[in-house]
Write a structure and sequence with these properties.
Length: 218
Protein backbone atom coordinates (compact mmCIF):
# COMPACT_ATOMS: atom_id res chain seq x y z
CA UNK A 1 0.00 0.00 0.00
CA UNK A 2 2.12 2.89 -1.26
CA UNK A 3 0.94 6.30 -0.20
CA UNK A 4 -0.10 8.73 -2.88
CA UNK A 5 2.73 11.00 -1.70
CA UNK A 6 5.27 8.47 -2.92
CA UNK A 7 3.75 8.55 -6.39
CA UNK A 8 3.74 12.32 -6.56
CA UNK A 9 7.00 13.19 -4.83
CA UNK A 10 10.39 11.70 -5.62
CA UNK A 11 11.67 9.29 -3.00
CA UNK A 12 13.64 10.46 0.01
CA UNK A 13 16.02 8.71 2.37
CA UNK A 14 13.98 7.03 5.12
CA UNK A 15 16.70 7.98 7.64
CA UNK A 16 17.43 11.64 6.87
CA UNK A 17 14.87 12.69 4.22
CA UNK A 18 17.58 13.49 1.66
CA UNK A 19 16.13 13.36 -1.84
CA UNK A 20 17.05 10.56 -4.18
CA UNK A 21 17.00 7.00 -2.90
CA UNK A 22 15.17 5.05 -0.22
CA UNK A 23 18.21 5.04 2.11
CA UNK A 24 21.36 7.11 1.55
CA UNK A 25 24.86 5.70 2.01
CA UNK A 26 25.36 7.61 5.27
CA UNK A 27 22.17 6.28 6.87
CA UNK A 28 22.87 2.82 5.48
CA UNK A 29 25.83 2.67 7.88
CA UNK A 30 23.31 2.79 10.77
CA UNK A 31 20.97 0.30 9.11
CA UNK A 32 23.26 -2.47 8.02
CA UNK A 33 22.11 -5.94 9.10
CA UNK A 34 24.47 -7.74 11.51
CA UNK A 35 23.67 -10.40 14.09
CA UNK A 36 22.89 -9.48 17.69
CA UNK A 37 22.09 -12.11 20.29
CA UNK A 38 19.95 -11.75 23.40
CA UNK A 39 18.34 -14.33 25.58
CA UNK A 40 15.05 -14.01 27.44
CA UNK A 41 13.71 -16.25 30.18
CA UNK A 42 10.09 -17.25 30.36
CA UNK A 43 8.70 -19.81 32.82
CA UNK A 44 12.17 -21.22 33.61
CA UNK A 45 13.17 -21.66 29.97
CA UNK A 46 15.47 -19.40 27.99
CA UNK A 47 14.88 -18.42 24.41
CA UNK A 48 17.32 -16.94 21.88
CA UNK A 49 16.41 -13.61 20.28
CA UNK A 50 18.31 -12.71 17.11
CA UNK A 51 18.23 -9.11 15.90
CA UNK A 52 19.84 -7.44 12.89
CA UNK A 53 20.33 -3.73 13.55
CA UNK A 54 21.29 -1.80 16.66
CA UNK A 55 18.70 0.83 17.61
CA UNK A 56 19.79 4.38 16.72
CA UNK A 57 18.12 7.64 15.63
CA UNK A 58 18.25 6.36 12.03
CA UNK A 59 16.83 2.95 13.00
CA UNK A 60 14.05 4.74 14.85
CA UNK A 61 13.14 6.61 11.65
CA UNK A 62 13.07 3.38 9.66
CA UNK A 63 10.81 1.69 12.22
CA UNK A 64 8.50 4.69 12.47
CA UNK A 65 8.44 5.06 8.67
CA UNK A 66 7.18 1.50 8.36
CA UNK A 67 4.93 1.54 11.42
CA UNK A 68 3.34 4.98 11.35
CA UNK A 69 3.74 6.18 7.76
CA UNK A 70 3.30 2.99 5.73
CA UNK A 71 6.43 3.86 3.73
CA UNK A 72 7.15 0.90 1.47
CA UNK A 73 10.88 1.73 1.44
CA UNK A 74 10.90 1.49 5.26
CA UNK A 75 8.87 -1.75 5.13
CA UNK A 76 11.44 -3.23 2.78
CA UNK A 77 14.39 -2.21 4.97
CA UNK A 78 12.73 -3.72 8.03
CA UNK A 79 11.71 -6.91 6.20
CA UNK A 80 15.29 -7.30 4.91
CA UNK A 81 16.72 -6.89 8.42
CA UNK A 82 14.29 -9.39 9.96
CA UNK A 83 14.91 -11.79 7.06
CA UNK A 84 18.66 -11.56 7.76
CA UNK A 85 18.12 -12.36 11.46
CA UNK A 86 15.72 -15.18 10.54
CA UNK A 87 18.20 -16.85 8.17
CA UNK A 88 20.77 -16.91 10.98
CA UNK A 89 18.16 -18.11 13.46
CA UNK A 90 17.04 -21.03 11.27
CA UNK A 91 20.63 -22.10 10.60
CA UNK A 92 21.47 -22.17 14.31
CA UNK A 93 18.24 -23.05 16.10
CA UNK A 94 16.11 -24.78 13.46
CA UNK A 95 13.21 -23.85 11.22
CA UNK A 96 9.72 -22.92 12.28
CA UNK A 97 6.58 -21.02 11.43
CA UNK A 98 6.48 -17.30 12.16
CA UNK A 99 4.14 -15.53 14.57
CA UNK A 100 4.03 -11.74 14.24
CA UNK A 101 3.35 -9.58 17.30
CA UNK A 102 -0.02 -7.86 16.75
CA UNK A 103 -0.31 -4.10 17.24
CA UNK A 104 -2.74 -2.61 19.72
CA UNK A 105 -6.13 -2.40 18.03
CA UNK A 106 -6.26 1.41 18.29
CA UNK A 107 -2.93 1.56 16.44
CA UNK A 108 -4.11 -0.91 13.81
CA UNK A 109 -7.22 1.18 13.16
CA UNK A 110 -5.20 4.38 12.89
CA UNK A 111 -2.61 2.87 10.54
CA UNK A 112 -5.08 0.94 8.40
CA UNK A 113 -3.12 -2.28 8.82
CA UNK A 114 -1.67 -4.61 11.43
CA UNK A 115 1.89 -3.65 10.68
CA UNK A 116 3.94 -6.55 12.08
CA UNK A 117 1.45 -9.19 10.95
CA UNK A 118 1.70 -7.87 7.40
CA UNK A 119 5.52 -7.71 7.41
CA UNK A 120 5.77 -11.16 9.00
CA UNK A 121 3.59 -12.55 6.19
CA UNK A 122 5.80 -11.03 3.50
CA UNK A 123 8.95 -12.41 5.17
CA UNK A 124 7.39 -15.88 5.45
CA UNK A 125 6.35 -15.81 1.78
CA UNK A 126 9.93 -14.97 0.76
CA UNK A 127 11.28 -17.92 2.79
CA UNK A 128 8.47 -20.34 1.78
CA UNK A 129 7.29 -20.81 5.35
CA UNK A 130 4.03 -19.95 7.13
CA UNK A 131 3.20 -16.89 9.15
CA UNK A 132 0.44 -17.49 11.66
CA UNK A 133 -1.76 -14.67 12.89
CA UNK A 134 -2.75 -16.32 16.16
CA UNK A 135 -1.86 -13.86 18.92
CA UNK A 136 -4.57 -11.56 20.17
CA UNK A 137 -4.79 -8.94 22.89
CA UNK A 138 -6.89 -9.97 25.88
CA UNK A 139 -7.33 -6.35 26.97
CA UNK A 140 -6.26 -2.83 26.19
CA UNK A 141 -2.56 -2.11 26.74
CA UNK A 142 -0.77 1.23 26.74
CA UNK A 143 1.82 2.24 24.16
CA UNK A 144 5.07 0.85 25.64
CA UNK A 145 7.42 3.43 24.17
CA UNK A 146 7.22 5.90 27.08
CA UNK A 147 7.24 3.30 29.87
CA UNK A 148 10.19 2.12 31.96
CA UNK A 149 11.13 -1.54 32.27
CA UNK A 150 8.95 -2.30 35.29
CA UNK A 151 5.93 -0.49 33.86
CA UNK A 152 6.33 -2.37 30.56
CA UNK A 153 6.30 -5.74 32.28
CA UNK A 154 3.21 -4.74 34.24
CA UNK A 155 1.51 -3.25 31.16
CA UNK A 156 1.98 -6.34 29.00
CA UNK A 157 1.66 -9.18 31.55
CA UNK A 158 -1.19 -11.47 30.56
CA UNK A 159 -2.06 -9.23 27.60
CA UNK A 160 -1.87 -11.91 24.88
CA UNK A 161 -3.86 -15.03 24.22
CA UNK A 162 -4.02 -17.46 21.32
CA UNK A 163 -6.90 -17.16 18.89
CA UNK A 164 -7.31 -19.43 15.88
CA UNK A 165 -10.06 -17.38 14.23
CA UNK A 166 -7.95 -16.16 11.38
CA UNK A 167 -5.67 -19.17 10.98
CA UNK A 168 -7.23 -22.63 10.71
CA UNK A 169 -3.85 -24.15 9.80
CA UNK A 170 -2.47 -23.19 13.20
CA UNK A 171 -4.29 -25.78 15.30
CA UNK A 172 -2.04 -27.60 17.74
CA UNK A 173 -0.25 -30.56 16.24
CA UNK A 174 -0.51 -28.94 12.84
CA UNK A 175 2.31 -26.46 13.29
CA UNK A 176 6.07 -26.35 13.18
CA UNK A 177 7.87 -24.93 16.19
CA UNK A 178 7.19 -21.20 16.34
CA UNK A 179 9.52 -18.23 15.89
CA UNK A 180 8.14 -14.91 17.08
CA UNK A 181 8.69 -11.83 14.94
CA UNK A 182 8.73 -8.18 16.05
CA UNK A 183 10.24 -4.91 14.87
CA UNK A 184 12.22 -4.12 18.04
CA UNK A 185 13.35 -5.70 21.31
CA UNK A 186 13.98 -3.34 24.22
CA UNK A 187 13.28 -4.99 27.58
CA UNK A 188 11.97 -8.19 26.00
CA UNK A 189 8.68 -7.85 27.93
CA UNK A 190 6.48 -8.10 24.81
CA UNK A 191 8.32 -11.13 23.43
CA UNK A 192 8.25 -12.80 26.85
CA UNK A 193 4.48 -12.29 27.08
CA UNK A 194 4.00 -13.72 23.57
CA UNK A 195 6.09 -16.77 24.50
CA UNK A 196 4.11 -17.20 27.72
CA UNK A 197 0.77 -17.06 25.87
CA UNK A 198 1.85 -19.49 23.14
CA UNK A 199 3.57 -22.04 25.39
CA UNK A 200 0.68 -21.93 27.88
CA UNK A 201 -1.64 -22.76 24.97
CA UNK A 202 0.59 -25.75 24.19
CA UNK A 203 2.66 -24.46 21.27
CA UNK A 204 6.42 -25.03 21.05
CA UNK A 205 8.30 -21.75 20.74
CA UNK A 206 12.00 -21.85 19.84
CA UNK A 207 12.83 -18.15 20.02
CA UNK A 208 12.33 -14.81 18.31
CA UNK A 209 13.75 -12.53 15.65
CA UNK A 210 13.53 -8.74 15.55
CA UNK A 211 14.65 -6.09 13.09
CA UNK A 212 16.29 -3.92 15.70
CA UNK A 213 17.67 -4.24 19.24
CA UNK A 214 17.80 -1.43 21.80
CA UNK A 215 19.80 -1.35 25.02
CA UNK A 216 17.58 -2.71 27.79
CA UNK A 217 15.88 -0.02 29.88
CA UNK A 218 16.24 0.24 33.61
ZN1 LIG B 1 19.96 9.40 4.81
Amino acid sequence: MNSLAELIFPSRCVGCSQLGISICSLCRKSWHPHIYFREISVLNNSYPVISAVQYSPIASKVLLGAKESNLSAADNLLADAIGHALTFFIKNYGAGDLVGIPSRSAATRKRGRNFMIEISKSIAAAQSIQSLDILQHTRTVRDQSQLDAQARTHNIAGAFCVSLNSSKSATLGNTQPLIIVDDLITTGATLAEAIRALTTAGYAVIGAVTGSVAKPLR
